[in-house]
Amino acid sequence: MTDAVPLRLGLVGSPNAGKTTLFNALTGLRARVGNYPGVTVERREGALEMGGRRGVVIDLPGTYSLDPISADEAVVLQVLEGAMPDVPAPDALLIVADACSLERSLLLVGDVLRRGVPACLVVTMLDELAARGGSLDLTRLEAALGIPVVGVVGHRGLGLGRLQALLASPDDWSRPPIAPPADRLERAGWADSIVSHTVTQRPGSHRVSEAIDRVVLHPVGGPLLFTAVMVGFFQLIFAWATPAMDWIDGIVGTLAEVVRAQVTQPALANFLADGLVAGVGSVVIFLPQIILLFSVLYLLEDVGYMARAAFVVDRAMARIGLEGRAFVALLSSYACAVPGIMATRTLPSPRDRLLTILVAPLMTCSARLPVYALLIGAFVPARDVWGPIGLQGLVLLALYLLGGVTALAAAALLGRTLLPGEGLPFTMELPSYRWPTPRLWLSQVWGSAAAFLKRAGTIILAASMVLWVLLTFPRVEPPAHLSPAAAASYSLEHSAAGRLGHALEPVIAPLGFDWKIGIGLVASLAAREVIVATLAQIYASSDEDASLREALQRDTRPATGEPVFTPATVASLLVFFVFALQCMSTLAIIRRETNSWRWPAFAFGYLLVLAYGASFITYRIVGWLT
Amino acid sequence: MQGKSDSNHAPDCALNTLTPGQTGWVTAVDTDDPRGRRLLDLGFLPGTSLRVLRRAPLGDPVLYELRGYRVCLRNEDSLRVRVRVDPGGAK
Predict the structure, then answer these.
(1) Looking at beta carbons, which residues of chain A come within 8 Å of B68?
(2) pLDDT category of residue A1 using cuts at 50, 70 and 90
(3) pLDDT at A245
(4) B61 contacts A104? CB cut-off 8 A
C-alpha cells in the first residue's frame, strides 16, 4: 500500500557537490523536467519508491548560501519556505556536500539546518577524498551535527541502500540540539570546529589533476588545446551530423511517397504527406545534432574540461559582458541555434543565459547555407580573386563574419541597455578530473533529447501544420492546359501564403523584393532553407539547383522588363537572411527555455528590424554602386 | 571592513595583486553588497588560508585553492579580499 500524499524530499547543495549524480541514482530515469512558475529556472522532480512509501525527490538549483543573489538561488529559498506557488515545501531535506571541500560545504549546511526542517547530510566524493589521502570520520560528523550522515559514492551505488532505508521515515531523524549561529563569521567558526573534530586527515592536492592542468591551462598550450577541442566539436555537430540528417530527410521523403501512393483521396493524401509527415520530419531532423551536441557537451562537462575551457576563454567573453561558459553555446549555434540555445543551460546566471539566447540566432546556422549557396551560385561570378581563393567563397565568408560580429556587438549592446548586470560575481569551481560514468552520461543525453522532443517538438509540429495550411488553401483549380509544374506554381500563387506575398509587396519593395520573394519569406518562417523549395515551386522549376538558378537569372519585372534579381536585390536578400530570425524551431525553443512568449517575440522583433534596416541600406548602397 | 589586525609583518594587500605560487591568509573582505557576501559564502572568510594556483592565459580570471577546493575569481571581485602574504609561500 502507498500513502495518498507522497513524501517530498528536497535536494540542497552547492554546484559541483554531486547533486545530479545522487538525483539520478535515487530516481533512475523517471525525472520530470519543467520550469518553476514565472522564472526561467529548470525544475526537476523524480519519483522514488522506499519501503512501501511513495516519495518525490526535488532537485533544487545549486547554491552556495540561502542569501540569494540570483534567480536560481531565490528559487531554493522560496521552495524551502513554501513560498513558490504550486510547489509545496519539502517535508525533509537531503543536504549534499563534497567530502573534499567539507570546510566550505559546512557553511551552507549550517545555513540550511537553521530552518528546522528534518535534514540528513549526504557526503559525496568519498572516493576522491581517499585518492587525495584524506580521511573523514562520518560517525563523529553525525554526532557533531546532530543529524543523520550518510556517505555515498553515487555513480557506484555505494551507501544508497542505507540512504533509501533512512528516507522512509524522516520524522524519526535526529535534530541538532542547538541551531548553528546566524552570523556568517560565527557560523564559519562553528564549521571550522566541526572540521577539526571530524576530518582526521586533510586531503592533499589532486596530483593527477594538477599535472593535467599544467598542460590544459598552460599560457600557450591551453588556448591551443581549447581551439583544437572547439574545432573538433564544431566539426562534429556541423559535418558529422549531416549524414544522419540527410538519412532522416530521405526516410521522411520516402514515407511521404508511400503515403501518397497508399491514400487515394487526394486532399487527405496531401495533408498526410506534406502536412503531417513533413511536420514530424521537421522535428526529428534536429535529433542527430542535439544528441551529438549533448553527448560531447556532457562528456566534456563530466570529465571536468568544460570549466577549464570557460576559464581559458573567460577574459575574451568578459569584453562583451558575458562569461566563458557562453562561448560553447554561441559556437554550437553556428551549426544550429536550437541545440545552441539548449546549451545555455550550463550558464548559472539567468541574465547571461537570456543574453546568449537572444544573440544566438545571429550565428550563421547550417540552415542558411542552402539559401546562400543558391544566391551566390546564381549571381556571384565564380572568379578567382587571389590564388585558389574565389569570389564566391569570399562572399560566403563575409556573410559568416557579418553574423558572428553582429552577435557579439548585439550581446555587448543588449547587455548594457536591456539586461544590465545583476551584481552576480563570476565564480567557477574547477573540479578534479574524473572518468565519466556511462550511465549518468547517457541519462543526461537522453534527458536533453527527450526534453527537446517534448518541449519544442509540439510547437514545431503545430507551426509547420499551420504553414502547410497557408501554402495549400484556399485551393484554386489551375487552368487545365498548364503543365504539372506550372499548375503547382498557379495553386501556390492563389493560396493564402501567395496572397500574403502580394500583400507584402509594398512593405518589401524598398528592399528590392517582389511578391515572389515575399512568398518565399513567408514560407521561410518555417525554416530558412524552405525558401529554396518554395522559389523552385513558384518558378515552376524542379528542385535541381541549375534550373532554379537559371530561372532566377532570367526572371524580369513585368512593368519595366528589368531583371528581378539585380545585384542590389541579391545583396539585400543575403543580408536579410544574415539577420532575420526566420525559424519557428528557434522561436519554439526560446519560448520553452525562457518560459514566456515575451522573449521569442522580442528576439523576432529586434532581428526583423535589424534585417529590414540593413537590407534597406544594402539595397540603396549596392544599387547606387552598380 | 573587518578583522584588521596587528601589522608587525608585511601589511595586507588586495588578493588580485598576488602572483601564482604565493600563499597567504584572508584578513578582511569588503562585504558592502551581495557580491561581497558571496565571497564569504565561497569560503573567503577572515582567517582562511589560500594559495594562488594560476592565471588564465589572458591574465584574468585567477584560480585559487582554499578550504579543500579550487575556485576562480575575476580581478574585479578578488580586489575586495584583503590578504596577508605568507612570507615562506612565495615561489
Answers:
(1) 100-104, 202-203
(2) very low
(3) 82
(4) no
Q: Stretch A243-260: mean pLDDT, rounded? A: 87
Lowest-confidence region among A92-96, A474-478, A575-579: A474-478
Decide the pairing of beta strands A7-13 and A92-98.
Answer: parallel
Of A316, A425, A430, the CB nearest to B70: A430
Whether residue A66 contacts residue A112, with contact meaning beta carbons closer than 8 Å, is answered with yes
Comparing A24 with B10, which gets the higher pLDDT?
A24
Least confident of A312-316, A400-404, A487-491: A487-491
Indicate whether A403 pLDDT > 70. Answer: yes
From chain A residues 181-220, the ones with a CB under 8 A of any chain B CB are 184-185, 188, 202-203, 205, 213, 217-220
Q: Pick the more confident residue, B75 or A480.
A: B75
Min Cα separation A312/chain B (Å)? 5
Confidence tier at B26 by pLDDT (50, 70, 90): very high
Distance of alpha carbon A533 from alpha carbon A274, whole angstroms: 13
- Residues spanned by CATH 3.40.50.300 within chain A? 7-204
**Alpha carbon of B33: minimum distance to chain A alpha carbons (Å):** 9
The CATH superfamily assigned to A7-204 is P-loop containing nucleotide triphosphate hydrolases (3.40.50.300)
Instruction: Label each residue of A481-515 as H, E or C.
Output: CCCHHHHHHHHHHCCHHHHHHHHHHHHHHHHCCCH
Mutate to test the interface with B, among A430, A432, A433 (most CBs of B within 10 A): A430
Write the class of the CATH domain B13-89.
mainly beta
Please indicate if any CB of chain A lies within 8 Å of the CB of B89.
no
Partner-chain contact A102 B68, CB within 8 Å: yes
pLDDT of res. B2: 44
- Any idea which residue has 556587438 for its cell? A409
- Of A114-118, A348-352, A454-458, B85-89, least confident by mean pLDDT is A454-458
The average confidence (pLDDT) of chain A is 85
Higher pLDDT, A619 or A236: A619
Interchain CB contact of A135 with B (< 8 Å): no
Q: Which cell numbers hold the place of A334?
A: 553556428
> Closest Cα of chain A to B2: distance in Å?
11
pLDDT above 90 (res A19): no
Taking an 8 Å cut-off on Cβ atoms, the answer to whether B73 and A425 are in contact is: yes
* C-alpha closest to that of B44 among B60, B30, B59: B30
Residues B54, A217: C-beta atoms closer than 8 Å? yes
Q: Which of B72, B75, B77, B80 to mutate to test the interface with A (most CBs of A within 10 A)?
A: B72
Sequence-ordered alpha helix ranges (H) in A94-137: 102-113, 126-131
- Segment (H or E) for A54: strand A53-59
Cβ-defined contact of A423 to B54 (cutoff 8 Å): no
User: How far off is chain B from A426, nearest CA to CA, in Å?
Assistant: 6
Q: Are A48 and A8 in contact (CB under 8 A)?
A: no
Task: Indicate the Cα dihedral angle A295, A301, A303, A309, nearest 10°.
Answer: 120
